[in-house]
Amino acid sequence: MDPGDPAGDPAAGERRRMGQDPLLLLQALQTLWSTRERQQLREEAWRGFAALDDPLAGLLDMLESCRGQRGEGPSLEAWISHQLQCWLQAQPRPSLAQHSLRLKQLQARAVKVLTESPPSLAAPLASIFQLQDADRSCLLAHVHRLHHEGRFREAATLGATLKLQSELGIEKMSVPLLLQDKVALVERYVAGFPELQRRLLALMDSWCQPGFDIKDVARQYPEVSSLSLEKLSPKVLSRQVLRLQERYGVAPALCPNAAIQQRLAALRHLCHKRFVEKSLSQENWTDHVQGLVGQSPWLQEQLSQLLVSHSDPVTAAQCAMDLLLPEERLPAAVAVELRRFRLQGRATEADSRLEVKDVKDRYYQLPIPRENVHLLASWEDLTRHEGALLQRHQVVGIDLEWTPVFVAGGRPRPSLLQVAVEGHVFLLDVLALSQPPTGQGAQAFSQLVAQLLSDPSITKLGYGMVGDLQKLGTSCPALAHVEKKILGGMDLLLVHRQVPVAVAVSEGAAPRVPARAFRVVCDNMLQGLARSLRCLGVDARMLGNGEDHRRAAEVARQEGRIILTSGQPFHKLRAQVGAGRCLSVDCSLKAQQQAKAVLKHFNVRVTHADIFSRCQACNCDQYLKVSRDMMKQLMWLSSHQEGPRSSGDEATQSQAVQEPGPVPDAAPEGCTYDRPCRWLQMADLRAETPDMLADGTRLQLAGVPVGVLRTPGLRYFYCCTGCGKVFWDGSHLGRVATHFRDVLESAPSPCEPSPAPSPASSPF
To answer: E strand or H helix at 125, and its extent?
Structure first.
């Protein structure tokens, strides 16, 4: 007879004689299990447990009798084990004494059952029989056997359930799981074990090392199926490492390779923005790239390759000179151009620096000597200047700077807390002081900031201070919700929002500026704002993507325009054009909100007639009116004209004429546009190219859907003489009037009816 069979166990026979037979209970539960009557099944199980003289031994009797009968899917044995676990927790029964002989006997049987059971039994058996205190050699041997058989997930799950992690190798247990993209399981495996978390991060970071090939690791585990190596590329893996580093509160120094990969991703993004999208000026691009590359030889080589792939050797050499890249890191062709630049004295950056020195007085100069600007990066620095920072009855200016992030999923982190008192500026290096989170520097920093903000005798001034402190609390847990503890603080953002209103009230006689007389120049980061202002009739010029922000000052001086800018260039530009001629625009606002803020700030008068008085595309304010019949004729002639025209243009124009297309939305009732302008005459067009004005401007007829020509009530179109763009009356006018109704003057409703043109005035 099988010694594991309870039928041959005298103790089991004795239990059957003196109380409920566990095997009879199992039979009853098996019958109900097949009927799926779960409520009845639970009630029967709990009654049976109560009738057993020894529920723990009875469970083992039932599990041992089921050996070899377990199949796929939910297991009755696992369900019974879980229900007994719940029943024991609900019963006020004395537990077996730890290390007692009876408990050891039950643990030995439970371990044997566990080694022959599915993973679903591990958790309830470990809880019921206190297997964390059982003979660990048998448990470890079982986990190692599962791992050897390639059952990596089961091995890790069982090892975590039995708290065996410190006795199992982190690399052995985690590598196969990482190769299968089971990062979440690995995170659960090391939960609660800080040392294992650090070792896991060090392992994953080593895979981010430049030149590392994850396939070399995969070849060491031929038994691993369903490899997910694409999820372990340096780009993807570095994000996981940095996420776990922040979650575990590990010092950045432990993950240098992931940080390098993140910087490389940022470099690629910046090169795309500069050379492909052309949405970054050379100056801004250089500033960001210098901070990312630093003195890393590998990043310098990667940047050199990126420059060559995105530009010609001359441009790459100019960028390399601006960035002070070592010549030995550059490809041969770029190095030759760099030497030529140096020999010919065409160092653009050096020239610009000399120019800045010559006109230094045109820039804002901080009225504080350099020796009174203090960088605090350690607890010793904080202790040395604590008295000056916490001096009672003083006024303190506070601002927070952020580390820019150029990779997907990245989150800006507070990097520098600026605290200004009379005659001194203190720059607190948040990144250095907050690492490690439990270190002396982090504690001193949190205590000093909390004391500074909570002292009502110290007046704190900031702009958007509450939002900054909320984000600071997310990076420094000791400062969580510190914004709610400010005493004696004044947020200048709230004051700023009230300034236009206060000025209007106190200076009621201040002249208003008509929209069409208001002239601005927007930097290349505010192109959406420029288009919104043009929509309201403002003469808004915007810099191109490749133009430096200093060009805005030249345009402002030459054409008498006001500069609208954002970010760092504001102070430099303001110093060049004088007070009141440069405004810093909040980039967190949408373009329409920015436009409203600008109009209110400069007291600009906008009427309904100003809407669409300028072309949003080119800023021109001269239109030609075209009747619907004339537009039909022009579109037909344009699509059938003979002469040199690319096949692509022919296809576009022909498609615009032949395809019927849907009828666009008509303008709302009473919401029309009738701008006074000259009618288009045949003399305005070139005879050989009827879609081109005499000055060479080609009408953009391809952008007019044929369906528009069938719009009820639509009588005429408008052509911009500057770029040839074609406009017509539609629902957009009403939407714009609605969006800007709070800045429109004398507008009783979002749309005002306009008189229709006289038929006699039409030349057609």
So the answer is: helix 122-128
Half-sphere exposure of 511 (CA within 13 A, CB side): 5
Indicate the pLDDT class of residue 506, thresholds 50, 70 and 90: very low
Q: Measuring CA to CA, how many Å separate 527 from each of 521, 546, 568, 595? A: 10, 13, 17, 11
Number of neighbours of residue 414 by Cβ within 10 angstroms: 22
Q: How far apart are CA 163 and CA 186, in angstroms?
A: 14
| Over residues 346-359, mean pLDDT | 47
Structure-token pair, residue 757: 């043109």
Q: Residues 229-254: what's their mean pLDDT?
A: 86
Q: How far apart are CA 641 and CA 695, in angstroms?
A: 19
What tokens does 591 get?
Answer: 């373009």
Three-state secondary structure call for residue 436: coil
Task: Specify the 3-state DSSP secondary structure of 704.
Answer: coil
Measured CA to CA, the distance from residue 23 to residue 39 in angstroms comes to 21
pLDDT, averaged across the chain? 80
φ, ψ for residue 413, nearest 5 deg: -115, 140
Q: Are 46 and 85 in contact (CB under 8 A)?
A: no
516-548, pLDDT tens digit by residue? 999 999 988 888 899 999 999 999 998 887 787
Considering only residues 564 and 728, tell me which one the structure prediction assigns the higher pLDDT: 564
Q: So what CATH class is 372-498?
A: alpha beta
User: What does DSSP say about strands 582-584 and 489-491: parallel, antiparallel, or unpaired?
Assistant: unpaired
Q: Is the pLDDT of residue 716 over 90?
A: no
Say what percent of the chain tops pLDDT 90: 17
Using CA atoms, how far residue 28 sits from 51, 152, 639, in Å, is 14, 36, 86
- pTM above threshold 0.90: no
Q: Provide CB contacts within 8 A for 600, sequence distance 6+.
A: 500, 743
Phi-psi region of 755 (alpha: psi -120 to 50; beta: other; left: phi over 0): beta
pLDDT digits (tens, 9 = 90+) for 543-570: 887 787 778 888 998 898 999 988 767 7
Distance CA 725, CA 190 (A): 63
438 phi/psi in degrees, rounded to 5: -100, 10
pLDDT of 653 above 50: no
Same fold, 372-498 and 513-610: no
Say yes or no to pLDDT of 7 above 80. Answer: no
Q: Is 760 exposed, middle or buried (0-12, 13-18, 19+ CB in 10 A)?
A: exposed
Neighbouring-strand partners of residue 398: 419
Calculate the dihedral angle through the C-alpha atoms of 628, 631, 635, 637, rounding to the nearest 10 degrees. Answer: 120
The domain made up of 513-610 is a member of CATH 3.40.50: yes
304 CB-near residues (< 8 Å, 6+ apart): 316, 320, 325, 329, 330, 331, 334
Query: What string of DSSP letters covers 240-292?
Result: HHHHHHHHHT--GGG-HHHHHHHHHHHHHHHHIIIIIS--S-HHHHHHHHHHH
Percent of the chain, pLDDT > 70? Answer: 82
Q: Is the pLDDT of residue 184 over 50?
A: yes
Query: Does the bond joining 176 to the residue before it have cis omega, within 30 degrees of 0?
Result: no
The CA-CA-CA angle for residues 43, 48, 50, to 5°, reads: 100
What distances in angstroms separate CA 369 from CA 10, 372, 397, one per listed residue?
Answer: 94, 6, 18
> Is 545:277 a contact under the CB 8 Å cutoff?
yes
**Per residue in 625-654, is it b (16+ CB within 10 Å) or e — as a string?**
bbbbebbeebbeebbeeeeeeeeeeeeebe
Task: Parse the chain into domains and list their residue ranges.
Answer: 21-52, 258-343, 372-498, 513-610, 622-638+674-729
DSSP state of 128: H
DSSP of 616-659, one letter per residue?
A: TTT----EEEEEHHHHHHHHHHHHH--SS--HHHHHHHHHHHH-
Residue type, 723: C
